[in-house]
Specification:
The complex is a heterodimer of chains A (599) and B (376). With 599 residues, chain A is an alpha+beta fold. In chain A, 25% of the residues lie in helices and 34% in strands. In chain A, the strands form 7 sheets. In chain A, strands 10-9-15-6-7-14-11-12 form an 8-stranded antiparallel β-sheet, covered by helices on one side. In chain A, strands 20, 21, 22, 23, 24 and 25 form a 6-stranded antiparallel β-sheet that branches. In chain A, strands 2-3-1-4-5 form a 5-stranded mixed β-sheet, with helices on both faces. Chain B has 2 domains: 6-250, Aldolase class I (TIM Barrel); 299-373, Arc Repressor Mutant, subunit A, CATH 1.10.10.920. Helices cover 39% and strands 21% of the residues of chain B. In chain B, strands 1, 2, 3, 4, 5, 6, 7, 8, 9 and 10 form a 10-stranded mixed β-sheet that branches. A 3-stranded antiparallel β-sheet of chain B has the order 11-12-13, with no helix packed on it. In chain B, strands 14-16-15 form a 3-stranded antiparallel β-sheet. The chains are: A alpha+beta (599), B alpha/beta (376). The interface between A and B is large, with 29 and 49 residues.
């Protein structure tokens, strides 16, 4: 297949605009997947993706399509839509020449439509707007076209009008890909230059590199090396394409998207964004790769069963290979034992990683409240980066603390502007700008401490605007803040896993909420348990879990002995699963309950 | 010693109507009575044992008072035939107020029954109707009077805490009953079991929460104490010398035979339960009745049970008896007992260890801590 007949493209969209469904239809139409094998969201192979109906990982697939007598190879890379996964999006964009921009005809252009579209433009991709969900009664095709033209500046007059769900006009989309997406322009005869856009670990094959070949050729036997781990070379044992499962081929040529196996056993030898080249005939310079991502949100992850520490460590190592944006380092807690301090791109990313750890590696986890990174200036003139409340130096040694602040953009229908502004103010936001994009959309810009964003902002925004508003944010910098560490005391003892860094003015409300949540989550025990929130020695909130008065007043007759025994055995087992904080038994859920506080 | 004594429990599963809260094995089809008693007698015969003098007898249900007196006559004859009844110290029968007729009471009296337990539940007629009881309060007073006339003066009244009535209604029940010539009061918290009509009527929600039930219990205990009823077990109150010997026997880890559908027993170190459903009970070969339900209690388990049951009693357990039965010191067997004592959850008085009355509510937590330490 000549390069001229290859098209590499991706699909970008706001979350829930029908990207994965369209991908399914394209595969079905090109006969890549027999209809009987067709499952909804074919490319979303993780259970968690199917359940939540979202795409988290980019997934490549190769399709064959015949147009005007010529046969074409179409490489599609499905991408995630949520802001937290922009990193994944930008990786897939770098492997493509074109992008389908899917817009929901009933929703119009949304925050992520724009954000992803800008990413695609930065990568010089040809963008083809596709208007989806035209079968919905609420579809506004003309309005959507106009919005695409006004908000993005793309010509939408020729945009395919489709219903991915109903399978309407799928051929037009494929035709547009062939006609409009430029073929890859790499040089097959040049030295090998290939981009690693993803990796996976296989127990038999070692690391599997997902790659886009930019120049040259790779085949079984080629000796390869990576730029960032220079010195090590590997012999290629298998190359292949995604059809959509992995399918070995003889070679991958410039312009191809596929995978390489080379018996790479050490996970750290490959890095997403690195360049692969031929060890004997290397290319001059690496591809520019990706921006190193900085985690924005941190939390402690501990195995619910302390003996599973090594399993958790293995799991994180393997996930890291598959998700380069995850960072972690060992951590210990008096209450929770040995675990890891992990860094994430955002809250959804954090949730997804937790879920993947639990499902794919069958682990039970306890996580601590998310935190951001603070810049702490000590009286000794040092500057520390602190992402863990327990590591915060004592107040006497702190000169001042700076907290990260983000530039947040909220897109909302005009009728909710008041609610959005109220929320941003509640969250210590500073108003920057407000623009009417059109009759139906307003963009509000605020500077908001990231600390407030990770603490429930998104859920509250969605509930106050009945789901209509969307949020995009990027790190702006650090500003000084009145920040303090708040500890939670259970029966007079500090529980380190519950400490948080908060704005001093917020501490009272937050302390009260946390104490209330803990009161609900900690079961009544043999004695009364005071729950206190404290800043230093000062108690700022208090709740009490009253002593238990339960379950013994029921009848105990002869035949009941076996049943009573079972009940007690259960109670005993339940207690074993709880964490001991001093004399108090704390269920794992209690640590999680403080993460879900509604405003 | 208690472990040498044997009691007998017999289950009579028939009821005129099923109560709204009842999840016991019961049956309203009296046409099965002939076959049921035939099977019951066969089972007693099969297990007959004249080597162990019987200490107490208890007929529970269901409603033993609802069946024809001739069945009960035959039942007591059967007991005499199969067991050594020469040393029986107490014979109790559960009765419902509406079915305790003169005929029934004279039958009980002539068979040596000396204790009746009435399922009164409440003195409030509206409550009784709501939970599907067939009697009204005045039926109970009349039945009590009749029992006395048949010289059965040892009488218990069952009350329930947390029925769908006001708290005042409950308190009135307690004070009314305490003023009547009864010798024993049981006060149990209502249990809502899935599948009962009361569960459905209340949508699975207890009319009173744990704290309210506990407050009501406290108030009842106080009222009863004033009227001369001393608590001897968490839910049981008796006038001087009128504690139920049969139930004390359970709580002191005693052995007992058990006959009839759903009956549970503890003989020769084995706990067992007969088939729950009356038809299954009738159909099963008599040698197979305990199949699948038998559980051999080893000495460690028995020691755990001994603590579980004994700590429900106001008098607690005897440390020397514990040593005699299990050959190990109580404080050594339950290594956490000492810490519980230090924290005030166990009280040590001479030979006896008990739970202080203000810690009764957490008996289960105390037990789970004790059991955990006996595991180690």
């Amino acid at each position: 297949m000549s390069q001229q007949n290859t098209r590499n493209f991706c699909i970008i969209a706001h979350i829930d605009h029908g990207k994965s469904t369209l991908a399914d239809r394209l595969m079905e139409y090109t006969g890549q997947v027999a209809k009987r094998d067709m499952e909804a969201q074919m490319l979303d192979t993780m259970d968690i993706e199917r359940e939540r109906g979202i795409t988290i990982k980019l997934t490549p697939v190769r399709m064959h399509y015949v147009k005007d007598g010529a046969e074409y190879t179409l490489n599609l890379i499905d991408t995630p839509g949520h802001v937290d996964f922009n990193y994944e999006v930008s990786r897939s964009l770098a492997a493509c020449e074109g992008a389908l921009l899917v817009v929901d005809a009933s929703q119009g252009v949304e925050a992520q439509t724009l954000a992803n579209c800008y990413l695609a433009l930065e990568n010089d991709l040809e963008i083809i707007p596709v208007i989806n969900k035209i079968d919905l009664p609420s579809a506004d095709i003309e309005g959507t076209k106009k919005e695409i033209e006004d908000a993005i500046g793309l010509d939408a007059s020729q945009a395919p009008l489709v219903s991915a769900k109903e399978g309407i006009n799928i051929k037009e989309v494929l035709d547009a890909v062939v006609d409009l997406v430029p073929p890859p322009d790499g040089d097959v005869t040049a030295p090998l230059k290939a981009l690693i856009f993803d990796c996976q670990y296989d127990n038999y094959k070692g690391v599997i590199i997902f790659t886009r070949i930019v120049d040259g050729e790779v085949r079984v036997g080629t000796q390869i090396k990576m730029f960032q781990t220079a010195g090590k070379t590997f012999d290629v044992t298998e190359v292949g394409i995604f059809a959509p499962g992995m399918q070995p081929v003889d070679s991958l040529l410039a312009g191809d998207v596929g995978y390489i196996c080379a018996s790479i056993k050490t996970v750290s030898d490959t890095k997403v964004g690195d360049t692969v080249t031929d060890a004997k005939r290397p290319c001059d310079s690496p591809l520019h790769g990706y921006k190193e991502v900085k985690p924005m949100v941190f939390c402690g992850i501990f195995p619910a069963d302390g003996s599973k520490y090594n399993d958790l460590k293995d799991a994180l190592e393997k996930l890291k290979l598959n998700d380069a944006s995850l960072t972690y380092e060992p951590d210990t807690s008096v209450a929770l034992g040995f675990g890891f301090r992990c860094g994430f791109l955002g809250l959804l990313h954090m949730e997804i990683i937790q879920e993947r750890l639990e499902r794919e590696f069958d682990l039970d986890l306890v996580t601590t409240a998310p935190s951001v990174v603070y810049k702490v200036f000590t009286t000794q003139g040092e500057q520390l980066f602190i992402d863990n409340p327990t590591k915060l130096p004592p107040p006497t040694l702190i000169e001042h603390i700076e907290e990260p602040i983000v530039k947040a953009e909220v897109y909302s229908p005009p009728e909710y502007v008041g609610d959005v502004m109220g929320l941003c103010q509640d969250k210590r936001g500073t108003f920057v700008d407000m623009t009417y994009l059109d009759k139906h959309r307003v963009k509000l810009s605020y500077d908001i401490p990231l600390n407030e964003i990770i603490y429930n902002f998104f859920d509250t925004l969605k509930s106050r605007t009945r789901g209509y508003a969307s949020l995009d944010y990027e790190l702006k910098g650090f500003v000084p803040g009145k920040l303090v560490r708040m500890d939670m005391l259970l029966n007079g003892e500090v529980c380190d896993a519950l400490s948080v860094i908060v704005n001093e003015e917020r501490a009272y409300a937050r302390g009260r909420q946390m104490a209330e949540k803990l009161k609900e989550a900690i079961p009544r025990q043999m004695f009364e348990i005071p729950i206190q929130a404290a800043i230093g020695n000062k108690i700022i909130a208090r709740e009490t879990v009253k002593a238990l008065r339960k379950d013994v007043l029921a009848k105990c007759y002869g035949g009941d002995i076996t049943r009573k025994k079972k009940l007690l055995e259960k109670q005993k087992e339940g207690k074993k699963r709880m964490r001991q904080v001093g004399s108090v038994s704390v269920p794992s859920e209690a640590f999680m309950s403080i993460l879900k506080i509604d405003d | 010693m208690y472990s040498d004594k044997y009691s007998v429990y017999i289950h009579i599963p028939f009821c005129k109507a099923r109560c709204g809260y009842c999840a016991f094995s019961s049956c309203t089809d009296f046409s099965l009575a002939d076959r049921y008693f035939e099977k019951l007698f066969e089972e007693m015969k099969f297990r007959s044992d004249k080597s162990k003098p019987i200490y107490t007898v208890y007929l529970g249900g269901g409603t033993p008072s609802a069946v024809d007196a001739r069945y009960l006559d035959a039942l007591f004859d059967k007991l005499d035939e199969c067991f050594d009844m020469s040393q029986v110290e107490e014979t109790s029968v559960e009765c419902n107020p509406e079915s305790a007729s003169d005929e029934l009471l004279s039958c009980l009296a002539r068979n040596g029954v000396d204790r009746i337990s009435f399922g009164l539940q409440s003195v409030n007629d509206a409550t009784l109707r709501a939970i599907g009881r067939l009697h009204v309060f005045s039926d109970f007073v009349a039945a009590l009077d009749r029992a006395h006339r048949h010289n059965i003066v040892n009488v218990n009244a069952d009350l329930m805490i947390g029925l769908p009535e006001s708290r005042d209604d409950f308190v009135r029940s307690v004070s009314t009953v305490a003023a009547l010539p009864v010798t024993h009061v049981s006060a149990y918290a209502l249990e809502l079991h899935r599948g009962t009509s009361l569960y459905a009527a209340l949508k699975g929600k207890q009319p009173f929460d744990d704290d309210e039930q506990a407050d009501m219990y406290d108030e009842a205990a106080e009222l009863l104490a004033k009227q001369g009823f001393a608590r001897y077990e968490i839910s049981n109150f008796a006038r001087e010398g009128r504690q139920c010997k049969h139930n004390l026997h359970y709580w002191q880890e005693g052995h007992y035979f058990a006959f009839g559908a759903a009956a549970s027993g503890f003989t020769d170190g084995v706990r067992f339960t007969n088939p729950w459903d009356i038809r299954d009970y009738i159909a099963a070969p008599v040698a197979d009745l305990r199949e699948g339900s038998s559980e051999t209690i080893d000495s460690r388990e028995e020691a755990n049970e001994f603590a579980m049951l004994g700590l429900r009693l106001d008098c607690g357990i005897s440390v020397s008896e514990f040593y005699e039965r299990f050959g190990i010191d109580f404080w050594q067997f339950f290594s956490s007992a000492d810490s519980l004592r230090e924290r005030g959850f166990l009280l040590c008085e001479g030979d006896r260890v008990r739970v202080p009355s203000d810690k009764f509510y957490v008996v289960n937590s105390i037990l789970s801590e004790l059991w955990q330490s006996s595991d180690e």
